[in-house]
């Protein structure tokens, strides 16, 4: 009993509970049909939210006001860059992925330079950058008809025993991110800055360098996400990253990361991503209209956050 109470006290557990309840409700509605396929599909789609969610988590952990709103535009441009470089050739897959990563890293670095040089809030800097990136993406990627190399498209959609390969690799990545956050100097520095930026500076943390690396990391993960999305959906699109603006923030908050900074939770990002994907699946299964879907999604997200916050207050 004590161990159960301890587990329920973890903010991130509520995202997994929410995902399980949504899945159960959907399976009950369908009479048990398609439950396994729903989990496979949820894992396939949650991967892309988890990747950008981890980057957003590191940024938000830096403290109040830190957020990367350029991710959707970053994803769109990187997907076009990756497809253009790969040009349908399997031998260019690695080069295309590196190009997408480089594109994302450049965007992330530019975001921080705007924040640092102009002394403007991150929300303004990254939103402004997104408009510039979108303009570049429209001129560069609009009408792009290049399909991904067959090997890359197959890899992005491949499964092992019903489990997407990308999901397995992303789990390994998130384990690495959790280790980096809790065990490495970089991760501990991010947490320290989020808890008290002045105290971190007085303790010898190079605040500017850590913030620069964090925004660059977020940009790099956005670039990687764009390439993988283009492979999964078999083509680049200017609007391919639009849904990941709010989703990347929602999975961080629902997953138990503090918006005030200084506290992050990697497992919760996975739970929240699965919750959001399964929630959308459930509402589609119930035949709910788009407007009501958005309303219910918002209300359920608030409910999960409130439940997590209530358990935190009880500790």
TrEMBL record:
TM segment ranges: 12-33, 39-62, 92-115, 122-140, 160-181, 212-232, 244-262, 269-288, 294-314
Coiled-coil ranges per UniProt? none
Q: What is its main location?
A: membrane
Q: Which InterPro entries match?
A: ABC_transp_permease
**Do the record's keywords include NAD?**
no
Q: Where in the cell is it found?
A: Cell membrane
Which GO MF terms are attached to this record? transmembrane transporter activity
Q: Name one GO cellular component term.
A: plasma membrane
A Pfam family matched in the record: BPD_transp_2
Keywords (alphabetical) are: Cell membrane, Membrane, Transmembrane, Transmembrane helix
Note the topology in the membrane.
Multi-pass membrane protein
The name on file for this protein is Monosaccharide ABC transporter membrane protein (CUT2 family)
Organism annotation: Mesorhizobium tianshanense
